[in-house]
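PT: before anyone asks, these are the final sequences, not the draft ones from last week. 672 residues across everything. Please model them as a single complex and drop the result in this thread when it's through.
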Amino acid sequence: MEYQRVKANLNLHAVLRNLETLVACDDKAAELIKSWEVTLQFSVLRGPALYLEFQNGRCRAGEGVHHAPDVRLFFLSARHLNRMMDGKASPIPLKGFTRLSFLTKEFPKLTDRLEYFLKPDEALLADDAFCEINTRLNLGVAAYAVRELATTDSMGRLNAASMPEGTLSIRVLPNGPSVSIVKENGGYAVGKPNPENPMAVMSFRDMGVANDLMNGKCDAFAALAKGDVSMKGKIPMIEAVNLLMDRIPHYLG
Amino acid sequence: MDTYRYAQSQALFDRAVKVIPCGVPGHMSPAVNIPPSAYPIYAARSEGARFWDVDGNEFIDYMCGYGPMILGYGNPVVDEAAQRQSWEADLTMCASPKMVELAEFLVDMVGSMAWAFFAKNGGDVTNYATMVARSATGRKKMVAIKGGYHGVAPWMQALGHPGVLAEDHAHTLRIPWNDVGAFEQVIAEHPGDVAGFIATPYHVPTFYDSELPEAGYWQKIEALCRKEGIVLILDDIRHGFRLNMQGSHVHYGFTPDLVCYCKALANGYPISALMGTDTMKNEAAKVFYTGSYWYQAMPMAAALACLGELKRLEAPEWLLKQGGNLFGKMETLAAGYGFHLKVTGELSMPNVRLTDDPSGMLHQAWCAECTKRGVFLASHHNWFVSTAHDEEVVARTLEICDEAFQVIKEAAAQGRQAS
Ligand SMILES: Cc1ncc(COP(=O)(O)O)c(C=O)c1O
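LR: through. Structure below.
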């Protein structure tokens, strides 16, 4: 099932890996994990794998298999992982039984915190501090989701094929968060924030505009025309990335 | 000089977004201009090669309404013919004699084509052409060029765009331009199931350089179509009457089965045409295809007047020559500042691009600086020349281009980008 497979890739590589960003920008999340010294491995049978290292109050996400995780969580299928993300199934712990209570009690507090920011209601979005974290997380999800969709989703692959090579910088002005998406030799990666000499730049006038757009609250064409969102450089890169981003709600909506 | 401001345009746009999706949807959307703040959004008046926006700013227009304007805005011969027709009879309960006259005129003029059918937009006739091809052959697949534009019906739009289903593309096969081998390959992969091949006379992909047909390309495509019984459709909507009054196929020396016209047909009055060879006439007759306004006589009268004027002025030859004059001088100007201006496609509707920065940002800045001073240049699309782009217009254009080159040069020297 392509749908489940793509969704699992997005869940792991775009959503769960965002815990790294969450811990870095939300005090409450940082407080939750400050004493965690644990490496969690998530693996889907014949599917994607991701690990999260919690150490010294920081979280670092890594793709693939960690050499010595403390806990290994195994999923029989992409669907199994997706059901876990929806709170409807549990993983199979293959290692780290002594940490079961951590898994059932502590870790969910962090994922709940992520969900709190990623699935906001109107009242929360009215708060500037909340809005900022929501924007940072959404940008992170979008950047990694673009990479996954460009490689694992059949429609996404078609859209991405027409994307020229180079680096697209996406930034929130005046000094908000930034991500970049790199296409090189036909491969896609998430690059560093505010890259030098990008081939294309898409910028949001401020955090409010970025947030409205990412939460589907305004018309992107009108925002472009008014200069709330601006683009320059290789526009086909931005067009392709926008088409890919449009597919995110199909999987994570 | 002082650069333009667009307060009225922007105020209108603020009203528009409340009642119109995107404010200005489609190809006239300000979102395609980089940056939109350098461009007008609403035009108030036009004359010759120029238009004035709602703020009173004057522009020499190198987009010509994306091609329809070819004799200058407000051409008296065309406008008079159109007005006379609208007083006499425009849309009534019967077809107009002008329709017969226009079909006869086109059949007389356009090489190898034996009949004409009229509609409004380009997409009306490209879509009709594919239906005729399918009906005539009893086959399903249409072969088109990657990056080729034929309108907005779902099969013509890029896959993945909102509202377009994968199924809409099930029978459209896209191959690269100038690649005869790719055409042979799709024919082999779909034996006996390719109904038609559709392409423009030369390739004009948005955002990229234009590409002329390689020597022998069209002849090889034509030969393959003949051999395989595939209907050869020329989309001459954008190029039509800017290369050759007999059709762009005569310019490049081949014979299509169907030819689509639209943009320059009536100098801005709404009309498009599908023309075809004798053998396609009965096939076209079988396909039911019509629209509420397709029988309007006013645009037919305008088309007759426009084509008459284009012939009288030998417009394609003049446009190609004037394009050579203008863009040659523009290249020299650019070189004087150390910039490289790349001109691709035919000179009556070339793609023009500064190649000094691979991202295209410098080119976007230059187009924006020209526009803010009165020469409307799009940075993402080919430009168009009209017969109103005379020596005075060319001279003024070059003055403004020169100043814009200075501005981007100074900005670059200061390590920043203009616009
Ligand atoms: C080559 C070509 N074909 C078809 C069309 C579609 O014409 P219309 O927009 O009138 O439907 C266009 C319009 O730009 C065109 O340039």
